[in-house]
Amino acid sequence: MKKIAFIVFALCLSLNHSNLLAQQESVRPGINDKFNNATDDVVSSFVERFEKEGREIFDQRQGIVNACQLRPAMVVADIGAGTGLFTRLMAPKVAEVYAVDISQKFLDHVKEKCSEDGLKNVKTVLCDQTTCGLDANSVDVVFICDTYHHFEFPYKTMRSIRNALKPDGVVVLVEFDRVEGKSSEWILNHVRADRETFSKEIELAGFEEIEMIDDIFKTSYLKRYKKAERKTEKGHTTDTLEDVRAGLNNGTAVLLDVREQGEWDAGHLVDATLVPRSELLEIASDREKVSGKVPSDKIVYTHCKRGGRAAMVAKELQQHGFDIRPLADGFDALVEKGFEKARQGK
User: Fold this and answer.
1) What is the dihedral of CA 138, 221, 107, 192, to 10 degrees?
2) What is each CA distance from 86 to 61, 111, 143, in whole angstroms?
3) Pick from 30, 77, 115, 299: CA 20 to 30 A from residue 231's CA?
4) Domain for residue 99, yes or no?
5) In what order do the strands lie in the sheet with 299-303?
6) Structural domain boundaries enclosing 123
7) Which pTM does this prediction carry?
8) What is the DSSP code string of 27-82?
């Protein structure tokens, strides 16, 4: 009987851990199908649509480039480079430009056009739906124009971009301004959220807005962001408990209880997974082993009894680049604030 109980307990732990590491679903499935399956004709059609007078972004292209505040020694990443319009405009002003896109066909077009224009400082990078494909601390400016709404996994993509950005680097975002009752039917149907929602997502990925420009646009806006740590002087996250709940609900976050087994057995949260700090300390120097217990592609909220151990775990594992955000609230406080306590024996 004890053996059966142990097997059931182990199976539950295994299933729980599998769910903990599972990837969240796309926020907009299928939006990139036409790019993933692009032909030469598709590329040509987008050149005709994107690079013509009357398209707001094309008409304001010089103002947009000026807002990027480029300097000769900079390295720029044009994320979602598409036809390469801005890649070609930026290349003469900086040391190097990475044209990043999920479509090899579009990248081939960018490479061909840059060669024709004599631009030798442009490199093309084929990315995927969750990563930008750039090395850590490799770029000064990340430029994202009419592309963020195409990110199917915005948290993962923005964390990848954050990793590629140098410490004092900036993200320049240009997006359609989706306003109910005001925007065109096309924008309302195509762009999944408004500027406040997009900014919240970007900030939660570890950024801080530093400037917003919308006076040169009628249907778009431009924002500049810098990296932000999102933590207090004591090392606890500044994310709200509403942020925590939202992350747990949409799959971008997990909640780890870093107390010990006995404390867990005496009471724990339904949404939490037990990963004792003592176990993490034993493997703290081995990133591969830590990755077996802590997901590297999600926000990892940690909690303990009063917040101390949760903060220590973040310091002990920070060398590996995990997005660990310790909660100041302990177990009892979280229960008082509405997090569900598991029934005894569950």
Assistant:
1) 110
2) 8, 13, 9
3) 77
4) yes
5) 272-274, 253-257, 299-303, 324-326
6) 33-227
7) 0.89
8) SSTTTTHHHHT--HHHHHHHHHHHSSTT-HHHHTHHHHHHHT---TT-EEEEET-T
CATH number at residue 254: 3.40.250.10
pLDDT less than 70: residues of the chain: 1-24, 345-346
Identify the residue whose tokens are 């592309």: 147
40 and 119, same domain (yes or no): yes
- How far is residue 134's CA from residue 113's CA, in Å, rounded to a whole number? 22
Q: Are residues 157 and 243 in the same domain?
A: no
Summary mean pLDDT of the chain: 92
Q: Do 260 and 174 fall within a single domain? A: no
Rounded to whole angstroms, how far apart are CA atoms 162 and 89? 24
Provide the residue type at 37 as one letter. N
* Chain centroid to CA 168: 18
pLDDT of residue 20: 36
Looking up tokens 């004591």 gives 234
- The number of beta carbons lying within 10 Å of the beta carbon of residue 197 is 11
| Inter-residue contact 113 to 88 (CB < 8 Å) | yes
DSSP H/E element including 243: helix 241-250
Here the tokens at position 63 are 């103002």
Question: What is the Cα Rg of the chain in Å?
Answer: 23
Pairing assessment for the beta strands 220-227 and 207-213 based on DSSP bridges: antiparallel
Q: How far is CA 12 from CA 146, 253, 276, in A?
A: 44, 20, 17
Residue whose pair of structure tokens reads 């989706």 in the numeric block = 178
345 is a domain residue: no
**Strand pairing class (207-213; 165-176):** unpaired
Question: What token pair was written down for 120?
Answer: 């030798």
Q: Exposure pattern of 18-28 as b/e (b: 16+ CB <10 Å)?
A: eebeeebeebb
- In the structure, how many helices (H) and strands (E) does the chain have? 16, 11
CB 174 within 8 A of CB 221: yes
Same domain, yes or no: 175 and 47: yes
Predicted local distance difference test score (pLDDT) of residue 319: 86
The count of structural domains within the chain is 2
